[in-house]
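Worked example
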Amino acid sequence: MFERNIEKELKRWLDDKYRKPLVLRGARQVGKTTVITRFARNFDNFLPVNLDRKEVREIFESFDDVKKLLPVLFLYCNTPKKEGKTLLFIDEIQNSPHAVSLLRYFYEDLPEVHLIAAGSLLETALDKHISLPVGRVEYRALHPCSFTEFLRATGESRFVEPILEGTLPTAFHNELSQLFTTFSLIGGMPEAVARYAKNRDITSLKNVYNQLINAYKNDIEKYAENRIQAAVIHYILGEGWTFSGETITLGGFGGSPYKARETGEAFRTLQKAMLLDLVYPITSVKMPAISELKRAPKLFWLDAGLVNYAAKIRKEYLVNSDLMDAWRGKAAEQIAYQELKALSFEVGEKLNFWARAARGSCAETDFVYIFDGAIFPIEVKSGHNAHLKSLHQFMNESPQRVGIRFWTGKFSIDEVKAINGRTFRLLNLPLYMIAALPTILAKNV
């Protein structure tokens, strides 16, 4: 059990006098239960209940009054009540719509009880047969482990604060680059990270990935609404990993016989389950950043380690000294997506890339990042600044003066001329410093 970044966010929730019951959302096996178990150390009373158990569902469904329910939960958990703070953790809450409906009454009638709910299939149950009480709960998202969490897990925590503060000396560049390449290969699924931290054996992790992917496949009947959607989801979970980082076409995806409507529904279902993400372009360089849903999206998966295993590209990490060269550069884009996603715990926080609206133009940046009311272009590329043609095109049209490049070189800031002759600052961030992006932007905008 190693420290996760969301624990600081949970402590802010704990201290918030306007706190509401918290729903922790995230894909299967990203560590929700483990995080809450660690967080429970901040409480005098901890009541963990799992609605997978029939007897627990029967308890919840026997009560409409949460004040009467609470003593029964203490009895069920065999926990003598102590003076002080109480944390009630309801796992697999999607198994009882009645338990979901009780969340509002905990907020209204028992605000002194700290309540967190989660569920491995909660995302797919929402909007089907359960509805979370509007205005009575709040949400946080848990993602796979980020690089800073990987460093803590593997005994390299001394690097975390210098990275986050943007003050890491370049003397450690080679060491951090190697650690980040290892992280990019392993990915951020907590079980894989924990096992590697213990044994330092990458080859032994294939069973972890295999079990995770099979668990996702076994959930198909829970994800799918009908037989056709089940078949499409099965195809995506079998073949879709190799398209990570690519712009995809929904109709006939991956050479399949499925229509755009069928494939789109399947992708949206898997996106709700937080197993993958369809990242759409924006065409404006100014706020608001509006996703162009009629354009083709890029496909990214929840975790690089799963992608590397399922797409059978793990050996490429061994033969390429530069992460940018692995898997046609898509490996770097997938892990960059993952690190950008980990910057926020907000549910529904979307990523985009930029594509120029002009007819016939092929200019597009790999990502954009919204900060301080402005849109910043991101390219994931090595090489000379002149090769960043799409970023230059963005900066040529943008009113702001900072562009971002993730690469495998050292941290630096260049003064660069755009196509129209205006200058802008190019922030060259090593991939291992993506976690510092908000801090570095705050210093340079």
Observations:
- The two ends are 38 Å apart (CA to CA).
- The domain at 6-141 is CATH 3.40.50.300 (Rossmann fold).
- The first strand starts at residue 22 and ends at 25.
- The chain has 19 helices and 13 strands.
